[in-house]
Amino acid sequence: MAELVGGAILSAFLPVLFERLASPEFRKFFDGQILQGELEKLNITLNSVNGLLTDAEDKQITKPNVKNWLDHLREAIYEADDLLDEIEYKALKSKLKATSWMEKATGFISKYQIRQRLEAILKRLQHLLDQKDTLGLAEKLSLPPKTPTTSLRNDDDDSEIDSRVRDKDAIIESLLSDSDSLVVMPIWGMGGIGKTTLAQLVYNDTRIEAQFQHRPWIFVSEVFDVTRVTKDILRVVNPESSNYDNLDLLQRQLLKEFSSMERKLLIVLDDFLSDNTRDWYDFLKPFLQVGARKGMIKIVVTTRHESVASLTLTGPVEVRHLNELTDRECWYLLEKHAFVKDDSNAYPQLKALGEKIAKNCRGLPLAAKTIGRLLSAERDVQKWKQISSSDIWDLKNEDINSALRLSYHYLSSLSKRCFAYCALFPKGYEFGKEEVVLLWMAEGFFVQAQGNNSKKEMEEIGNDHFNDLVTRSFFQRSKGSKSHFVMHDLFNDLAKFVSGEFCSRLEGNNSSNIVKRTRHVSYADVDLDSLQKFSGACKDNVLRTFISLKPLERRSTLKRRSTLKTDEVIHGLLQTLGRPLRVLSLSQYQMVDLSDSISKFKLLRYLNLSGASFKSFSTPTKLYFLQILILRECPNLVALPSNMSKLIKLCHLDIRGTKLLEMPPQMGELKKLRKLTDFFLGEQSGSSIKELGKLQELQGELCIWNLQHVEKAKDAAEANLCGKEKLVKLELRWDRDIRASIDPTHEKSVLESLEPHKGLDYLSIYDYGGTRFPDWVGHSSFSCMVSLELTGCGNCSSLPPLGQLPSLEYLTIGFFYKVEVVGREFYGSCTSMKKPFGSLKVLRFSYMRGWREWISCEGAFPVLQELHVRRSNNLERVALPGHLPCLTTLDVGGCQQFAAALQRAPAILRVITADVQLKKLPSGLYSLISYRFEFAMEIMERIGLLPNALEEIVIYDSYSLGSFPLKLFSEVKTLKVGRCGNLDDFFTPEANVNFTSLDSLEIAECRYFVSFPEGGLPASNLTRLSLYDCSSLKSLPQNMRSLLSSLVDLSIMRCPALESFPKDGLPSSLSSLSIGYCPQLEPFPKGCLPEKLESLDVGHDCNKLIAGHMQWDLQTLPSLVKIAIESCDDVEAFPGEMLLPSTLISLVINGFQNLESVDFKGLQDLKNLTVVNCPKLELFLGGVLPSQLESLRIYQCSKLIAHLMHWDLRAVSSLLELTIDGYDGVDMVSFPGKMLLPSTLTSLKLVSLENLKFLDKGLLHLTSLKKLRIAQCYNLQSLPEEGLPSSITSLDIVVCRLLQPKCELGGEYWPLISQIPQVMMD
């Protein structure tokens, strides 16, 4: 693929420069025409360059010198833009300040210098322009067309992919279903996701072939030629049809053909990219006019644009959005193409690398198949390693790249520039729309549009381009947060590719990626030491952007103490950044003050210091260009700069989460301010509420704090909230904690004067002190209000008429202590045609301690879905409407009076009371958690739920439950019964009963539960059985092997009366068995343990069971990989005559009081070894450990630890983790001392080594060590003079009283550990 877009990005850049050069304000600065000639030359030269960009973009594919030309051109244009910014800055400065004769003389000199720089830029641009003939550049408009697709399949790989089979079957089901109308089903997804392949699978399915008489396949691509497409369809329907070029004749001919069709018609429009509404509906005309036969016509559209999917969707179907394949599915495709003639199992190294490569495909089937083909003739491990560590985009494979290239090519030049900028985002980074649009604005991507006598704000332009990138799948909605977005990894690679060296991400220690032409830098999860190194690498740079994208790892208790270190590093960093900086984000750093360091960035437009520690912030007064200031979540911030009114370009001020005492004076001078999150009123000083009236452009959300400081109601009226029609959300807050007294009449007058505009969507009022609300609260004229919250209005004895709000969907009312009755006044004067609360979905009441009665209004709440009443325990009488058809959630805590309402709620999905939680599951069945089983059954009866509607049952503390009627709950999958002290009978067996739905059964703390019924528990699909603290239980269910044939996990703990296992053994399906605290349990009968057993854990106090360990026959269990055995006092050598399987991977030996030696012979695959509390154990036979061992943990084994101190563990070259816990005293003064450790070690933990005093330089050989934890080493006082291994990223020091003070900030060892990213001390 082409190394795209030097040209595309520049073609978006240049219009902004042209607009600035043409602006009257800009030209006015050059009085006397001193520089007008040079500016005209610059304009002409830039226009000449602009005409060559499309051709240069294409030719850089094969001509590196053209790519180099574009990069040099982009540098020159950046320089021109920097110069124009400086000129504009000087113009703005002269406008704001009175100019003396001295300043005029200085200004003349400055303009002379500007002229020199401008001439140099012109010379450079002209030099580049003169090279166009040599490079063969000319004006060019388009890329070559894409090769058409056909209905034929190259292979059937995808037909075996589970997720695509489900997609195919769902589409076919929709296409074959009867319909009275035309059906158009769009398949939407990003390039390379498999849309065409899926359409081919559907098209060639035998079910489709049998039902559809004609199946034209049309490749559409970027140009939707209605005439051509109609003609192609007509040729398939009737090959002998006339070859008209007239659309009307073609469509009439097509209508005639429809009338004679015997079977259905399926049309596939592949790669449909046009969202032209008129063309689409012109195309559909004949299909919509065929009367009763139009249900016979089905159309499938594949597209990479969400807007096209929305446009074309027709009939009773849904858009089919294709998601990425799983890693397993990608590996299936890659493996099939990479190992055409071989078996991947014969190449274990390649298979492991291939699985890693499949993950890098990030769910794109095209990438998996293409890379598989690339590797099909390659068996060199190094080649596979190279590909596994590369970005797919770096492979320069035309198949993969062209899939995304087409999507990119048809973006507008400005959308291309916006997308390329997102190369700053790390893979997987979640971003919000506002966050990105503000960055684009600050970079100067947009020019405020003019047209139709109105201006389109830059935020609106940015939102349009953001939405364009979403609809074309460049941005995808995050799965974790609906309000955030992510880029697919391949699009992230594309953004990084097209931005080239101009955008760079600082990740880890890669400051070497910053080169001379780099303009934009981001960093994420970078420690202070790396930032210091970056500072040294970035002197004399011309960066425009330096942004933090997410918080650094928090440093626990050291975060506060490391403030001085942070300030030092950040100040040093800012000193290295150049004057052209436009965007600076240092969010989440614990900084004290940066005002002096920031003052030099006169072109700064965006400043984000969120999460900083400073108490006040002094914005440099010369930041005339500053547009966006974000001080969000600065918890100590109490004051903004007093001269803030000079920031006349400021349009966005985010101060959420601060503790400001007041706003600076003259806030009304910030005329361009569009977003102001909060406005704090001071008691005697700062801006008064009247200043808000001057801010006419405010939009979005606004919170006004400390309204108790408003002295006159007319001042509140001058805020003119009713005139701010772009406000969407408004919060009005009083602070009752600092009010000495309340004047209810005055507060009502203030609130009356704060009436907002009628189009407000969200309103919240907190701690209002009036006795009643003004008439505008709840007035029906607020027809757009969707959400309303009234909280802490403790003087009000009644609620306003909120039922009159026609669009209200969410209502929250809390802390109305004086309200005793909620009655007619609450519903308002609604008519029979207009029901009270006609749109309300969620209603919440809380902390209404005086509330005693709720009077209903018939017909109210017709669409109410959720009702929550909490902490209102004095409510005695509840009368809700007779029918609540949409109520799905009733959450009423201890207010049991609401139970009667359930019979009027046929759609109930969730009930929460103090004793019962009932909720509907995705399966359509219910989950029941109950503390009063009888009350739960009563609720179910009220809402008409039968016992067989329950899928999950959890019962606790129900002492009246003596026998559980399991036979009533035929659909239950999960059953947990706990602390039911009188339960003694589980169920009464009946002939031919099989609880086939039961999947998991847990019985805990039921002391009278004696046994399962005679004959056993018939639950053939039970996979998990847990028995805990059933002190009377004597036996397990009979016939377990036959009746519990699916059991996978069996856990038996604290059952002291349990005596034996079933004679016929445990189920053959069992893979995990855990037993503990069962002193009467006899040894396993011969053949009891199944061959599929993978994990066996025999815990404390199982003396009889362990006594027979020699007869367990573990060597016969081929699947066993994990064994944990505890408390075996009579064993001196392990395993002794008890043979262990060679498959063992993990071994835990705990509490063998007389154990003296361990032999690992035959355990060549052992990777994890844990030895605990074996006081006599001194050695491992042969003096060696298994060669594959990765983790060694030794606790409370003083002799063994002392012996290990003289061992050479370097032979265990795979060892990654070592834990040594002395506990009972180990004679170890220095570590590692004579103990030789392998360099592969990544984690080292030293715990409870009471005699340890020194860590010595032997640690420096651990070049891979990442984590070091030292705990309860009370006498440890010294670290190696040479320091710790530089590879360490996490140091944890806990309860080391002598060492800890030396490691704190300013301590003796602080210089040795300050570079470690994460240091934690208690």
UniProtKB/TrEMBL annotation:
<protein>
    <recommendedName>
        <fullName>Rx N-terminal domain-containing protein</fullName>
    </recommendedName>
</protein>
<dbReference type="Pfam" id="PF25019">
    <property type="entry name" value="LRR_R13L1-DRL21"/>
</dbReference>
<dbReference type="InterPro" id="IPR027417">
    <property type="entry name" value="P-loop_NTPase"/>
</dbReference>
<dbReference type="InterPro" id="IPR002182">
    <property type="entry name" value="NB-ARC"/>
</dbReference>
<feature type="domain" description="Disease resistance protein winged helix">
    <location>
        <begin position="424"/>
        <end position="495"/>
    </location>
</feature>
<keyword id="KW-0677">Repeat</keyword>
<feature type="domain" description="R13L1/DRL21-like LRR repeat region">
    <location>
        <begin position="689"/>
        <end position="814"/>
    </location>
</feature>
<dbReference type="InterPro" id="IPR042197">
    <property type="entry name" value="Apaf_helical"/>
</dbReference>
<dbReference type="Pfam" id="PF00931">
    <property type="entry name" value="NB-ARC"/>
</dbReference>
<dbReference type="InterPro" id="IPR056789">
    <property type="entry name" value="LRR_R13L1-DRL21"/>
</dbReference>
<keyword id="KW-0433">Leucine-rich repeat</keyword>
<dbReference type="InterPro" id="IPR058922">
    <property type="entry name" value="WHD_DRP"/>
</dbReference>
<dbReference type="Pfam" id="PF18052">
    <property type="entry name" value="Rx_N"/>
</dbReference>
<dbReference type="InterPro" id="IPR041118">
    <property type="entry name" value="Rx_N"/>
</dbReference>
<feature type="domain" description="Disease resistance N-terminal">
    <location>
        <begin position="10"/>
        <end position="98"/>
    </location>
</feature>
<feature type="domain" description="NB-ARC">
    <location>
        <begin position="167"/>
        <end position="343"/>
    </location>
</feature>
<dbReference type="InterPro" id="IPR032675">
    <property type="entry name" value="LRR_dom_sf"/>
</dbReference>
<keyword id="KW-0547">Nucleotide-binding</keyword>
<keyword id="KW-0067">ATP-binding</keyword>
<dbReference type="Pfam" id="PF23559">
    <property type="entry name" value="WHD_DRP"/>
</dbReference>
<keyword id="KW-0611">Plant defense</keyword>
